[in-house]
Amino acid sequence: MKIIDIYIIKKFLGTFFYAISLLIIIVIIFDVSENIDSFIKNQAPFQAIVIDYYVNFIPYFINLFIYLFTFISVIFFTSKMATDTEIIAILSSGVSFWRFLKPYLLAATFLAVLSFYLGNFLIPRTNHARRIFKNTYMEKLTKDNDRNLHVQIEPGVFVYVESFDSEKKKGRKFSLEKFDGQRLVYKIMGDKLEWNDEEKKWKIITWHERKIDSTGTEMIFTKGKEKDTTLALKPTDLYLVKEDFEEMNFWELNNYIAREKEKGSIAYKKYEIEKYKRIAGPVAIIILTFIGVALSSRKVRGGIGMHLGLGIALTFSYILLMQLSTVFSTMGNLPPSLGAWIPNFIYAGIGIYLLIKAPK
Asked: Among 203-217, 276-290, 304-318, 334-348, which stretch is predicted with the lowest mean pLDDT?
């Protein structure tokens, strides 16, 4: 690594961390002013506000805006280098344009690895404390579903609950049906369903059980007052937890998706989109870095202002495209893997074109 590499990496990372630190301070100030009424009303302790909420908020915020600020940082300091004719001097000394990109690649790779670590390992851990605080002192993240809940817990096995109380973990009017193809082979019904946290089991109260043979004739009928049973059903399957994937690390997210697929459920789609976004996002940092260099490495009449304006427009168009592809993956037939990677494919093509054109 040469002096010029260290010089560019320092400028890159220094500009990035300085800019995002300033924005974090501004955002925290606005967030405090917006939520102070909730803090006072719910008597949130000062230490919990600072440590549990705002300290844990910082990694989340950095990773949320890392693409935007990487791009802006590259454009800002590279445009300044171009305006001060530093880039002309570097290239005139015999350094090729492609060799000039090396320190950008190193710095962008560092930020990409940082983003991958934050999104997949650190933030899920910090989000746990932040979401507990938010659920206690700001807004309820758990919400009971509407009445008449239907859940597929295994292929061919369906559960029905008329209503479920997420706080008491009790349900009313429970039934489980097992099918062999289109034929009903087993059914159990109960007036109430209760979850035992210690034993991790369900208790069915006032139950009736039926087993049916291949001719449709009822073979066995039993009933009782209470029955402990283990089901491939968790209490969280019967109520909504707002964006609970925020607390899942990379391995937990993969395991959750695999379990949902085994059940035959389609609820895994938004989790799979989140998984692929966590992988595609860090790659976007490298792509946007090279687009930023290609755009701002030439000295133009508009200077830094023109480069920044174009850079911000491109970054927001990337974010918009990401949101659109996410919606099509969630609500439509677009595969989640493709939905997460489409913006990267498009902007990688733009980046290659600009890099080829830039030396000319």
From this structure: 304-318
Are residues 14 and 132 both part of a single domain?
A: yes
Which residues constitute the domain of residue 127? 3-139+277-357
Note if the pTM is more than 0.85. no
pLDDT in tens, 6-23: 999 999 999 999 999 998
Has residue 252 been placed in a domain? no
108 and 167 inside one domain: no
Q: Give the burial class of 34: count Cβ atoms within 10 A of its Cβ; 0-12 exposed, 13-18 middle, 19 or more buried.
A: exposed
Question: How far is 348 from 360, CA to CA, in rounded Å?
Answer: 19
Question: Would you call 200 exposed, middle or buried from its count of C-beta atoms within 10 A (0-12, 13-18, 19+)?
Answer: exposed
Per-residue pLDDT tens digits for 201-215: 899 999 988 888 776
293/232 same-domain check: no
Q: How many domains does the chain have?
A: 2
Burial level of 60, CB count in 10 A (0-12/13-18/19+)?
Answer: middle
Structure tokens, 58? 């910082």
